[in-house]
Amino acid sequence: MTDGAVVGVAGAGAWGMALANAAANAGHDVVLWGRDGEAMRAMQASRLNPKLPGVRLADRVAAAGDLAALAPAQAILVATPAQATREAAARLATLPGSAPLVACAKGIERGSHAFMTEVLRAVAPGRAAAILSGPSFAADVAAGLPTAVTLAAADEALARALCRLLHGPNLRLYHSTDVRGVEIGGAAKNVLAIACGVAAGRGLGASAVAALTARGFAELRRFGEAFGARGGTLMGLSGLGDLVLTCSSPQSRNFAFGVALGQGLPIAEAKARGLAEGAFTGAALTEMARERGVELPIAACVEALVEGRLDVAGAVGALLGRPPKGEE
After folding, report:
1. Parallel, antiparallel, or unpaired: how do β-strands 129-133 and 147-153 relate?
2. From edge to edge, which strands make up the β-sheet containing 61-64?
3. Domain spans of the chain, in order of start
């Protein structure tokens, strides 16, 4: 990968635009692709994205609705939602060349229980797969505020090269080969952030939110260890770092979704306010945990709440009613 490379971004939502601007700030020409051709033409003309108000596309970013515009890219960031990553990767697999694909969604595919890099490898086997995750809000990254994230690939040389490619004046990247650990941190923290949001919306106090964050991290760690994640990764940016951010800010769509539930909003209405990845990941996370004999009481309550098997009062009661035990 060379200086001044073309970087592709597939997915023109808030996160896709933020990553496109970050790559441009790192000194590259960027192609931002979205499947709605009319919307992409409007974005190219106005330099604005309604999903990220107040932020302009960087000068070096070209918005395109034609998939072929991504062909020159030396790397493609897949910034679609987790449950849409398979469809996006299948389209990208038809492009010429072998540019690596970097999953930028934080989730687990429902039904298949596949992590994001597993999805990429399944539908685009001719391309290397990597994962980017960490404590990062799209608005912060797009505005050029200081942010640090982790990028992992099984091939350390590739991870290093991708980090060098995307590293910019306000976006610091750390490389890793612990792909699974980075994926698990990003996926699990979304589910746990919903629980913290519920507590906040219910008015249970800061102490309850702090307790849920800490005990949620214990669940994340147990789950990660069961799937071979490294402890250092889980304690790092993509694990504990992202959990703390997501469980403490209304900027987090998962936290905000939980707040809405805690305030009594019906699940359908809460979902209609915006995508909360944790609402889709919860079932996969808890099913996978049960298969490995891993106990995730907080995540299980979130899953039951989102699936309508438990109301907020029942979820709070289920957690508080658990028998005393030693802290791990």
Report:
1. antiparallel
2. 61-64, 29-33, 6-10, 75-78, 101-103, 129-133, 147-153, 171-176
3. 6-177, 186-320
Confidence check: pLDDT of 243 > 90: yes
DSSP 128: -
Q: Average per-residue pLDDT in the chain?
A: 95
> pTM here?
0.95
How far, in Å, CA of 188 to CA of 269, rounded?
23
Asked if 12 and 34 count as a contact pair (C-beta separation under 8 A), the reply is: yes
pLDDT tens string 103-122: 999 999 999 999 999 999 99
Confidence check: pLDDT of 11 > 80: yes
Q: What is the pLDDT of residues 156-177, one digit of tens each?
A: 999 999 999 999 999 999 999 9
- Cα separation, 37 vs 64, in Å, equals 7
Q: Is the pLDDT of residue 2 over 70?
A: no
For 66-78, how does the pLDDT look when each residue is reduced to its tens digit (9 = 90+)? Answer: 999 999 999 999 9
Could you list the active site residues?
189
**Homologous superfamily, domain 186-320:** N-(1-d-carboxylethyl)-l-norvaline Dehydrogenase; domain 2 (1.10.1040.10)
Domains 6-177 and 186-320 share a fold: no
CATH superfamily for domain 6-177: NAD(P)-binding Rossmann-like Domain (3.40.50.720)
How distant is the alpha carbon of residue 325 from its chain centre? 32
C-alpha torsion sign, points 72, 146, 50, 185: positive
- CA–CA distance, 32 with 8 (Å, rounded to integer): 6
Helices (H) and strands (E) in the chain, counts: 15, 8
